[in-house]
Amino acid sequence: MARLHLTRDEAFERLRQHARSSRSRLEEVARGLVAHQDEAARVFRHFQREAAQVHRAG
């Protein structure tokens, strides 16, 4: 959350969106973040791409 300057609610919404877009259960995504660094890195890259797209759209 701190790296992306997100509130708790914004972070939850991003996780929820990622779960939906990957057709995964939110619980599975959250467990993956906690249990697997690879999953965390993939989700973080996804967030970075989203942030870059929003920034470019201005």
Strand count, sense and barrel status of the largest sheet are: none
Helicity level: over 70%
Query: How much beta, percentage-wise?
Result: under 5%
Q: Tally the beta strands.
A: 0
Distance between the termini: 22 Å
Structural class: mainly alpha
> Regarding quaternary structure, how should these chains be classified?
single chain
What is the mean pLDDT?
Answer: 85
Rg over CA atoms, rounded to whole Å, is 11 Å
Write down the overall geometry.
Answer: globular
Tell me the series of helices and strands, N- to C-terminal: HHH
Low-confidence parts, pLDDT < 50 over ≥5 residues? none
Protein architecture, described:
This protein is mainly α and 58 residues long. Helix content is 78%, strand content 0%. The protein has one domain (8-57). It has 3 helices and no strands. α1 (8-21) crosses α2. The longest helix has 21 residues, at 37-57. The model has no long low-confidence stretch (mean pLDDT 85).
In short:
With 58 residues, the chain is mainly α. The protein has helices spanning 8-21, 26-35, 37-57. It has one domain (8-57).
Which key phrases capture this entry?
3 helices; 78% helix; globular
Question: Which helices and strands, and how do they pair?
Answer:
Blueprint: H1 8-21, H2 26-35, H3 37-57
Helix pairs in contact: 1-2, 2-3
